[in-house]
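Researcher: Checking consistency across runs. Here is Amidohydrolase again:
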Amino acid sequence: MKFISSLTICLAMVAGAPLSAQSFDPVAAVDAEEERTGRVAKQIWDWAELGYLELKSSGLLKAELESEGFSIRQNAADIPTAFVAEWGEGGPVIALLAEFDALPGINQSASSSRDPIDGKHAAHACGHNLFGAGSLTAAIVIKQWLEQTGTPGRVRLYGTPAEEGGSGKVYMVRAGLFDDVDFTIDWHPGDRNSAAARTSLANRSAKFRFRGVSAHAAGAPERGRSALDGVEAMNMMVNMMREHTSMDTRIHYVITEGGSAPNVIPDFAEVFYYIRHSDTDEVLELWDRLEDTAKGAAMGTGTKVEWEIIHGNNPKLVNETLQKAMDAKLHQLGGFTYTEEESAWAEEISATLGDAARPLDEVEEIAPYEVTLGYGSTDVGDVSWATPTVSVSTATWVPGTSAHSWQSAAASGHSTGAKGTQLAAKAMSLMAVELYTNPALRESARAEFDKSRGPDYVYQSLLGDRDPPLDYRK
């Protein structure tokens, strides 16, 4: 492929004609990178590093980019595993996002049956190994296209750590790293091929830490004040609060520490809360109520409480101009097919999904375009308020598979996941070429973005001015 492209350039130079954008085929170029895509995805899957601890995963992506001539900005936004890689001159500036953090508390091999790996306490159950590898491939192919066609423009790959509860991109937005970006292209693994205009929920999280007085639970209970009582009282009040919230509200919590022995009144306990809603202002109002429950719980149990905000994301700002253009690219490409061996593996996965299972041949199709609300949250939301952003999702997982499941973790380490990743890289590459060469599309997308944000828009981070919680997964 590289030899053919070089020959095309030479012939064009001999003929005295400028090299056209059509002289380089991004789809074929992505196919030529298939080995690298799969190798990088599998290596990051094997490592399964948690948020802000992804030193090897981040380092691998940077090494691949440096080998292709990208300049690397290290330690972006004062985060050791965040980086910005760039190639090109002039404009437009088009950014791609690359995630690479794994999820704790879940573990799975690439088997089609439940098969945890001994000693491994995390897995890529959201497919961020694929996310990083697919964006890497797209960035390299876009760079090749810019170079071989002589088109002015810059391509950037943003290495964005800790999406899972760490809001890595929010710190990068807050630091101004997207201020000169014209457009951002994003993707995510999924169980269907879709460019639907899908927004997300705003969310904020915090760890509420209660402190009491320890004592012998049987011999001197009157001397103790249980920090766990504070946690449980807070949880009870929050669960009553659920009845009095609007329909888009989502509240989740886990008790991360509650004591070590029943006969010791715990002097420390901690509960980790998430609050989500489609409207940022509603999240802030709910948050005030959440803090009040913590204060009331401490008062009623004779304990003290403090809390630390861990992460916070704004909802995604949909740009339909861009989403419809991406939908057209996805339809142009079509889906993909499983091999006979992959089909057999996928059938076994599908059998574990129960009523959620869908036909396997959906991977060959493109889902209809629609505007929809997604009930997850992502720090891509903050990026979408800083720069017009377009997203795509491909069927890296067996149709019907939920994110954050052992089935999605298995597929993210399997060849079926790599196939969906290649499709995503092709769609992102074609979308970038369209943006570089279509000024009317750029103008329309920017006009929609400005209208959606409004003339008086001022960015507000749900994190406030806190530093990145680099140890939140330790």
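Researcher: Does this match what you'd expect to see?
Model: One thing to look at in this run: Residues 58 and 394 are 23 Å apart (CA to CA).
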